[in-house]
Write a structure and sequence with these properties.
Structural class of chain B: alpha+beta
Structural class of chain A: mainly alpha
Shape of chain B: elongated
Strand content of chain B: 25-35%
Order of helices and strands of chain B: HHEEEEEEH
Strand order of the largest sheet of chain B: 1-3-4-6-5
Distance between the termini of chain A: 39 Å
Oligomer: heterodimer
Strand order of the largest sheet of chain A: 1-2
Helix content of chain A: over 70%
Largest sheet of chain B: 5 strands, mixed, barrel
Order of helices and strands of chain A: HHHHHHHEEH
Shape of chain A: globular
Number of strands of chain A: 2
Number of strands of chain B: 6
Chain lengths: ~240, ~140
């Protein structure tokens, strides 16, 4: 693990990996979207509106998965002080927030025809909105701070914030089980899926595809942060030599 | 002990503490955070007459009756254990129907009828192609509310 904490080694892997993730992700998302929109039947009750799940479910997964990895990065930062984990957390925050927003937006668009409302303060929706605000808070905490100029590591406060925020993830996941909610219960559980196989397979494609795209975005953002840090370090050295 | 181990233990203890606090808070919110009450809770005395609340349940089979004015509907909301009659004046969502979930905003009237101001349809977690939706009930997975 320490070996990959070295930015040079990381770049040697990240650079060739990025185009592959990007290409495979785009192919899978486009294929899954095409299949989901044209090849599979609509739902027996909801009809065509059910097709939004091919975007909604991957967005929810990445919004929550994003914060989970952000919290792991925060823990690694706190305990092992690897600057690369801070860089990863910074890189994850923006796409994580984006997918959370996408999840809320697609859910709202689906909710209007299905439930008869754009928004209700039920457990699932409220906890997902809290996740969006958590991301916003993390981005505010970590943009323009000292760490950004000094190798990318997180401040202790930001790392703790990432860890504390992780509490919300099991709450989102369990909200439809613990509390009566307007949102339906989990369709896909460890024991199986209540989404019929005929409707399920494009979802596998888009979940995998969006995940690969997410990975590509994170790697690109990490490379950009590392490049920025190197430029800043070089400028500092030049300024020192002139003195 | 190396400082990094100290930090790991500290982080683990803090995480356990935060996790415990979260679980406690969530379980304390168990009733308050519920989006709606079920018919069995309403019958169990958890609903004051006139108190604003939400009632959620399945629309009982064959219970939807349109009243003479053409606008008011009556139906029975059930959770399998208890049922509550509901009266609503207005337009219901497309997915509202018998043997499917609904959530109603409103209040209990003294005669035991729940008067709704608004009705939302609640979808369940099952998704399937249309031809399967027409299969006999006993061939499908059990319905959840």
């Amino acid at each position: 693990m320490h070996a990959y904490a070295n930015p040079t080694r990381f770049l040697a892997i990240a650079k060739p990996l990025t185009p592959w993730l990007l290409g495979a992700g785009l192919l899978l998302v486009l294929g899954g979207a095409f299949a989901g929109l044209t090849m599979v039947p609509g739902d027996y009750k909801q009809g065509e509106t059910a097709r939004i799940l091919y975007v909604h479910v991957p967005s929810a997964w990445l919004g929550m998965g994003g914060w989970t990895s952000l919290a792991v990065a925060g823990l690694v930062q706190l305990v092992w002080r690897h600057p690369l984990s801070g860089i990863a957390a910074r890189a994850i925050a923006v796409p994580g927030m984006l997918f959370t927003a996408l999840c809320l937006a697609t859910g709202s668009i689906w909710g209007r025809p299905t439930w008869g409302t754009w928004w209700e303060w039920d457990g699932r929706m409220t906890s997902m909105l809290v996740l969006l605000f958590l991301y916003a808070g993390f981005i505010a905490l970590t943009s323009g701070d000292d760490g950004q100029r000094q190798g990318g590591s997180l401040s202790r406060g930001a790392a703790i914030y990432a860890l504390v925020g992780a509490i919300n993830i099991p709450i989102i996941n369990r909200s439809v089980v613990w509390w009566n909610s307007l949102h339906q219960g989990p369709s896909i559980t460890l024991t199986g899926s209540s989404i019929d196989g005929a409707l399920l397979w494009p979802l596998g494609l888009t979940v995998l595809g969006f995940s690969l795209l997410f990975g590509a975005i994170v790697l690109m953002r990490m490379r950009r942060i590392i490049a920025d840090n190197r430029v800043a370090a070089r400028l500092r050295r030049l300024a020192d030599e002139e003195d | 002990m190396k400082p990094k181990h100290q930090r790991l233990i500290l982080a683990a203890v803090a995480l356990a503490g935060i996790g415990g606090a979260g679980v406690l808070a969530a379980s304390a919110l168990r009733d308050e955070a519920a989006y709606f009450r079920t018919p069995i809770e309403v019958q169990g005395g958890k609903a004051e007459v006139g108190e604003a609340m939400r009632l959620g349940g399945m629309v009982a089979k064959g219970s939807i009756a349109r009243q003479a004015d053409g606008l008011t509907i009556r139906f029975v909301a059930t959770d399998g254990k208890a049922s509550v009659p509901v009266e609503y004046k207005g337009i219901v969502p497309d997915l509202f129907g018998e043997e499917s979930g609904m959530v109603a905003d409103g209040r209990m009237r003294a005669d035991g009828v729940f008067v709704a101001d608004r009705i939302l349809a609640k979808h369940d977690e099952r998704y399937m192609p249309p031809q399967m939706g027409e299969m006999p009930k006993n061939m499908k997975a059990p319905a959840g509310v």
